[in-house]
Amino acid sequence: MKRLLTLIFLYSSILLGASEKPNIVVILSDDQAWTDYGFMGHEHIKTPHLDKLAQNSVVFERGYVASPLCRPSLASILTGRYPFDHGVTGNDVDGNNKRAELDIPVREKFHKLPSFVKLLTANGYLAHQSGKWWEGSFKDGGFTHGMTQGERHGDAGLTIGRQGLKPINDFLDHATAEKKPFLLWYAPFLPHTPHNPPARLLKKYTQAGRAPDVAQYYAMCEWFDETCGELLGQIESRGLSKNTLILYICDNGWAATSTNKADPNQKLWEGYALRSKSSPFENGIRTPIMVSWPDKLTPARSPHFAHAIDFFPTIAAAAGMEAPKDLPGINLLEEKSRQARDTVFGVTHSVHNMTPGNPDDTLQYLWCVSGDWKLLVRHHGSDTTNYKNVHIWDKQPIRLHNVKNDPHEKSELSSTHPEIVEKLSKKIQDWHPVTKK
């Protein structure tokens, strides 16, 4: 009888644990600078819904992505690996040339890797994809439900947010009816171009002395925030908030050209400032990262680093599952792990070409941030497309910045701190050895 009671208790515990698996919501902004939120102190941009999420989150103001470009950045979030490991280093293999055909081997290799989507769905989760998605259809990525059918970067999925949230609301109704835990991948095409915000928001940000492209971008940031508020409201209205883990990140940064014309350190490119999207400067790679889980995490502003590669181990731990042991990221739910990390790393490759099987062939930079210091090591990987190389202007082999005192990297300090250059260069070389071109 005692043995029977023990077995009943164990079985009941298993069922209870299964029923209490948290829902997971991953919110991704698309092309937004790390400064451009109310909770990050922006003077003009209003983001009340994300500000409220920040109040209920552990906020990592020093969050970083693995790559300052959407496709490789998202691939690193999903797999917990750097671009030179998962093989997706740029947005295309050879620009517009045979795009679908040349992408096949890249995607085939990518989909052989574990991801937190496949881990969750293999363990009973329903999973919905919406918004930005590069790696085939939602089914290819392991989602049970979704919008993207397989075109370059999201096709039908890119309407989410811009045209309402009905597909997500329908999925939430379905998951609730099925009484199953769920994953939501919400990666709207916002505030990404085209910068065509609702007229009411554009009017709010249009003023004398503000360039039109800046006003449009500011309005897009608030539009994105509104959609996040609607999403979080749908979760709350269904009584799901308490057992839902929410993670927030942006894929890469952005800076409008007009915001930088007065700054001689900020050269311009087509449509945005060179030291933002696609660059290893803070406006390209830094992002606030938020983790919210009511009754499980005490809201706080963390002084520690967080990184895109941490999403997989964090989500796995929250769901009571085991992530691959070779992942380089940490579980952000663990304070000890956060305290133990003193350095984060990342890469920058050519934007519109990749060399399948040889990721370092298109390498442009390796970088690390350690304490207050940041080192950029310049490489000169191939760029064989007809697109203008956004990195060609920067010939300097090493750049050192103190990002605490100089977060916008106006002062280059390698000549006055050679000992720091040597120390951080060794860290980078130990992390990812590569022969410079």
Short descriptors:
single chain; 437 residues; alpha/beta; Alkaline Phosphatase, subunit A; 4-stranded antiparallel β-sheet; globular
**Helix segment tally:** 13
Structural class: alpha/beta
How many E-type strands? 12
Compute the separation of the termini in Å: 73 Å
Shape: globular
Adjacency order of strands in the biggest sheet? 4-3-5-1-6-7-2-8
The CATH topology comes to: Alkaline Phosphatase, subunit A
Strand content: 15-25%
Return Rg in Å. 22 Å
| Poorly predicted segments | 1-18
CATH architectural grouping? 3-Layer(aba) Sandwich
Give a brief rundown of this model.
The protein is α/β, with parallel strands linked by helices and 437 residues long.
Describe this structure as you would to a colleague.
The chain is of the alpha/beta class. It has a single domain, classed as Alkaline Phosphatase, subunit A, CATH 3.40.720.10. The chain contains 13 helices and twelve strands. The strands form two sheets. An eight-stranded mixed sheet has the order 4-3-5-1-6-7-2-8, with helices on both faces. The chain has a four-stranded antiparallel sheet with strand order 9-10-11-12, covered by helices on one side. A hairpin with a 2-residue loop joins strand 10 and strand 11 (373-378). Helix 8 crosses helix 9. The termini are far apart. The relative contact order is 0.16. Residues 1-18 have low confidence and may be disordered.
